[in-house]
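for the writeup, i need someone to sanity check this before i put it in the appendix. the sequnce is what the collaborator sent (i think, or maybe the updated version? ugh). structure was predicted straight from it, no edits. if anything looks off just tell me and ill rerun, i have time this weekend
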Amino acid sequence: MDLMHKRTLAVALALCCAALPYGQAQAASNDNNVEWAGLFHDQGPLYDSAPEPTSSQAVTLTFRTYKGDITSANIKYYDSADGAFHWVAMHWVSNDATGNFDYWQGTVPASSSEKYYRFQINDGSATAWYNAAGTTSSEPSSGDFFIVPGFKTPDWMKNGVIYQVFPDRFYNGDTSNDVQTGQYTYGGQSTQKVAWGGSPFAINGGSNNLVFFGGDLAGVDQKLSYIKQTLGANIVYLNPIFTSPTNHKYDTEDYYHVDPAFGSNATLQQLITDVHSSSNGPRGYVILDGVFNHTGDTSQWFDRYNWWSTSGAYESTSSQWYGYYTFQQWPNTYSSFYGYSSMPKLDYGATGSAVRNQIYGSSTSVVKTWLSSPYGIDGWRLDAPQYIDAGGNNGSDAVNHQVMAELRTAVKSVNAQAEILGEFWGNANPWTGNGQEWDSALNYDGFTQPVSEWINGYDYSGNAAAIPASQFDSWLHGTRANYPTNVQQTMANFLTSHDIQRFAQRAGGDIWKTYLALIFQMTYVGTPTIYYGDEYGMQGGNDPDNRRSFDWTQGTNTNAAVALTQKLIAIRNQYAALRTGSFMSLLTDDTNKLYSYGRFDQNHRVAVALNNDSTTHTVTVPVWQLSMTNGSAVTDLLSGNTYTVSGGNVTVSVNGHYGAILAQ
């Protein structure tokens, strides 16, 4: 059985026992039967004393069981330093406020080595095992929790909200730099200027990549009040902005200059300064798109069309940049990205190679230049980084991981708090699990895909793929288990990206499905990431239709979805539990399409109830699992209504395709 199926089975077994009535703990006893429904641990602040330990910090772990249910508990951890398992006996420390649960603790000693741990829980002759993948009756062989000493992900990512901008389509702040129709040709096609609000498809058989609307960095700067104040987002992620002949600019011509259609290096510098300012909204951060797997064929290093006065690799085998690329038969057969001849792959060669030094190794490298003064960007989003390698292979090999580790060292040497965000559409654990490469990744696998399938009944490509709430919960659980907690908390959770159909398109234009998705996005584990226009339900099919120009008649908080986004971001900012607190599943109801979960820390307990049905439902949320006491009050942060915990539950009416955020 593969790992994902093991995880799904474990979670399903746990869920079948999760609906026990309040007061079940009173029936728990030493009866040679471990009550699975009472077991809980994650690496939230109440259960892990040091989620990001240094090599000199011991880690005290807390485990929850039903009161009086077990006779002993142990931590079993694997230490990569000696390749062996070690045991730590746990001891009882306290009960929770409701009297339903016991807390047990044990401490893993400090060291610099990476460790993986699971729990053994015993009630007389009965044993259960618990790790990040769930609860099992036999010892698991995978899915353990992580301890990665010395691995720190940026706190501003854990606590922030990203707004992703495709520059040509956001706002035209400087019409003097607009690309005009017929201004230049590239690959035998001419540029086309399209009026704002027009179609992103080329007319008369031209290239979609050469359709320009006029959006630029000055436009982003002029609309910062919308991003930072109207919405409250504080991290601006820009799709590529460096010189390139296309509108998407994933075919870089010059890594050291902003494309003239977007402005100048000085324009970027001003934008960064204004994003960083706290006088125009929250202090912000800037992430740039680093396309380091390949260049464009118009790069000076390659120069397929003789645009430069120097000789590029395509023009001469004696070019100083010839070794930057891998030719099977010079000049027309060479390694490229997905076979696109316009995107020749860079050859990273051996340690200390010219390409490595050019991209990240030297003080004047691309990576370090933009992280350093006078620009001071706050992070890099890495495009297609799994393909980076030597010799024109397909990446994901030893060289790829070596390069990623070197790149991390280079980035952190300039700014230890900078973010490294990798693009990967599957399980990104190979690059994030050891703390030596990326900080986090784009969460296609653990957010975008399952959210679309549960809410819309379609995958992110628009194919029919409906899943019930229980499978949605299992999917989320399994993908969280792939990562250390500090990686989970900085995964970029987006409904849409520039590479897939718009969420609202998959929702059939039902704005209520966008409402529901936004509520989940802003209360789930990870960094909420808004692809421009998703906040008002912009529609669009596959590329380039997912890159329509922003409709500024919708970009105001008089728009209900925009106003909801603003409210949700404010709620997220107010409650640290929604950012770095524990996550606990509370309820799945496949029949009524309901899902409930808790987020909590030492200061607040928040229960979220989601209704994915088209009609209103009454939801009974078992908040006693969050240790909410009978008679205590909770407030729905969306409606303002107040409820009282009774019988361990809170009962709330939730509109179709909407939610409640119940906080105390």
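Residues 121 and 290 are 46 Å apart (CA to CA). Residues 1-26 have pLDDT under 50 and may be disordered.
thx in advance!!
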